[in-house]
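Re: duplicated header lines in exported structure tokens

Our pipeline writes sequence and tokens for each protein into one text file. With two proteins the header for the second block appears twice in some exports. Here is an export where it did not happen, for reference. First protein block:
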Amino acid sequence: MENRPDMDTAFAQPISAIRNLAPTARCKRLQFAIALMTALAPQAVIAAPGTVELVPHRAVYDMVLQPASGVPQANGGTGRMVYEIRGARCSGYNVSMRWVTRSSTPSGESILDDLQYMSWEAGDGDNFTFSSTRFVNRHLAEEMESSATKGKDGAAGEISVSKPEKITVPLPAGTIFPTEHIRLVIADALAGKTVRNDTVYDVSDDGKSIYDTFTLITPLAEAERASGVAKVPSLETTQAWSANVSYFLKGKEGGGEGLPEFEQNFSLFANGVATTMRLATPHVIIDAKLTEIEFFPKAEC
């Protein structure tokens, strides 16, 4: 992984125990939320949807986890995550993420869980590849690799999963990939729009999941804005929004009329800084706060 020593440094501080909250799928779902929170560069304010650029950066988040209401025999905890994005529309976007937690079983056994994720998406949004590796107590526990390609002019394409087993499934016509989703939501926020619907290849669980998404964009609450400005004073005059994205598993009975598989809510500042986010699933709620961020030079095309 590029610049791995810096990512390792971000995990040098102690991480408290997390009980009964395996992070594998949730980590991948957080990719969209974190990227969208930290995506906007100042020049994007006047950009059209096809020219929105994502600012290269590395961000470190501390997280607080708690069981969702009604979940029995579950405890909360804390964790740490490092997210990095590099690239540009001309060359494509590389994303890497690492999530480390220390958990304990009901019997008191300590578990170190280390999940590492990397992806590349073409700047035109037509191709997407990703891989993830999970270590438990420093032993390899899980590997996943997949790629997807759109058909010509938005027609149906193909998903090819190579790990843990080789399978090929159709990519429905009109499906978009995570970075393109980010850019479209950003463009709508800048244009003053408040609602959008998309079909997204999310790669959350088995490498082949497709989600119908509903995004609601609203003004950021003053208290949230004030908290962000207190942490990063340069945000004082920066435009900001609150975005809520609901994910519905495509093809599931009930569709978008039922309850979402998970929801993400986050603060979005127009200069690329984010301070808070929340991921809610039927089993766990994760609140994350930005603790540090480093911006990289813009990629040359």
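Second protein block, exported in the same file:
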Amino acid sequence: MSHISHLLSQSGNFAGLPPPYSDYQSSRVAVLPVPYDGTTEWHSGTRNGPRAIIEASYYLEWYDIELGKELHSMGIHTLPGIEPVMASPEAMNERVYSAVKSLLDDDKFIVMLGGEHSISYGSIKAYSQKYPDFSVLQLDAHTDLRDQYLGTRFGHGCVMRRALEICPVTQVGIRSMSLEEQEFIESNRLSPFIVEHDSVGLSYSDIVDSLSNNVYVTIDLDVLDPSIMAAVGTPEPGGMGWSDVLSLLRAVAGKRKIVGFDLVELCPDQGPASCCFTAAKLAYKLIGYSFFAGERPVNHQVITQDAKVPPLIINTPNQRD
């Protein structure tokens, strides 16, 4: 069939990439869909997120203006989705762990698409065993630091509590937490970066400085302002803007090695189709930053935010020593 492969639809491949750009062996990037929402409590449907992101990605331009590169040329292979395990979120995370570990053994840069946030634990666990000097950057409206929630220690509300048992975690974009989580933050001297609309804030360098050399990024899409990302399972008023998130990720990629990332909690039915495209674009941009941080084409003028305008991120009073 190879003689007609160029005539066939490439639906199912991220960005609609044809061979050879989507071949597993030659691709540096592996997209891993995880259509799981077994512990969702409010808006269900994040299990449809991976498919919606991939379908929206067909309409991405392969050329990235900011980086001046066609990012697809490094090869981006899209795997079939992981079959959900409904027995328990812990069992599901073991399946995610096994899949991610296998891909890391093949030296792939993994882009995991959720699905609810609980799946990140399995990926973080696998990455922590491969990379020394490892930490996690969490972009999220919620801390997800409960020890147990709705009868499980491995649900979406507990995922970063479990991650902290493995490695350091820097939390950015937080604007909602329980009293239990606040007490845990205080007792463990953690310092999440809280988003406030009227803050004078810290520079992104403070966030970068909190991270180790090898960084895994987990992005809950509710970190974004609902005005641009309404399609999430647990929306929260306020939040970071598109340019804020890109500026932060670009700063991290320029100073640290991003070894992989996940993009979770897209609930397509809760917002317009633009949300799915925004998620796909964010994934493609972060792939580019991870491989080509700091590179810009010399023939483009880039308009940036006025340096006098303060960033939207502040720290909690619980400062690190």
